[in-house]
Amino acid sequence: MDMRKIIGYINASVLLILCTSIIFPNRDTKRKFVIAYAAGYRGPMQVDSFHADMLTHINYAFADIRDNLVYFHSENVDSTNLVNLQKLKLKYPDLKIILSVGGWSWSGNFSDAALTEDSRKTFAKSAADMVKQFNLDGIDIDWEYPGQKGEGNKFRPEDKENFTLMLKELRTALDSVTATSGKHQILSIAAGADTPFLSHTSMKEVQTLLDYVNLMTYDFKDEGDPVAGHHTNLFSSGLTNDNSADQAVKNFEAAGVPRSKLVLGAAFYGRGWKLKSPQRKGLYEDATGNVNVGGFTYIKDSILSNDTYSRYWDNHAKAPYLFNSKEKIFITYEDEKSISEKCNYVKKNQLAGLMFWEYYEDPKCYLLKTIHQQMK
User: Exposed site from 114, 179, 353, 371, fewest CB < 10 Å?
Assistant: First the structure.
């Protein structure tokens, strides 16, 4: 019997979820998290194309902040997307749908929202109202970054303390929703995977308020860097004192975050540079500018099939890269081998799981299928 045909558009009520949980089997609660960030700003989502059987969480990105309130830039599109994502829970009742607030482009008003007790309460209430309106499973805060410059965001020295206070208000507001609904509400953050993020936050206290921390262990190198290099490497390459996912895990643990609350980040997209005078296939060499690369489906189907590019593997970093000697182009990216290394790292080090940015960067799900196999 096809419940979707019988029910039609989802009511999003607790009764409906309880009924469907009788019909469909629950997930293994011991399974590591597999969290997909899905960009709602791309437009209407075709949720039928989601491989929800391979996911534990979908973080819908993003809501913005205006006048200390959580809001959507495209209310009709975002609202429809969230309603449609809830339909996935008819078949996968243990799937968590989380609303992520902020992101690189929409962190401009976090500092104001966190500034005073009144602004924090207003913000927390509006986030809780969103949760209730769309029957969500929680809130993810992607403030880029407390106390630091981001994409035109306001920042203050007080952000360090206010970040904690804001999360306390959110935790209280979400716990109130839980008390009414009986469903635990998740509170998570997306954290910059570098030492400046740690120095501008109080993670030992913050982690007590959170269910888990999504480590953005990517963009270690970006288009603004004058030197090409790995952008989502698991370990240091040994060629330079570069950032790595492993070092981020160690730093956050030293700052007071238990490994069991850390979710390792993976990138479903690449970054590229045009090089000056490459001597070692571009790895950590001077660049003249960046090159648009795209997501992994494009990299695999179009770039890797181009015989002007050669693939190399950095066994120290556990990361691949591409080099075009004719055009002097270097590309850093994640592939099936590197994502397998990250999955093994998550299991070996007893982390909470793996998250990735962003679902639609790999529409053929080459990497997600690898994650699914490795996390079984």
Answer: 179
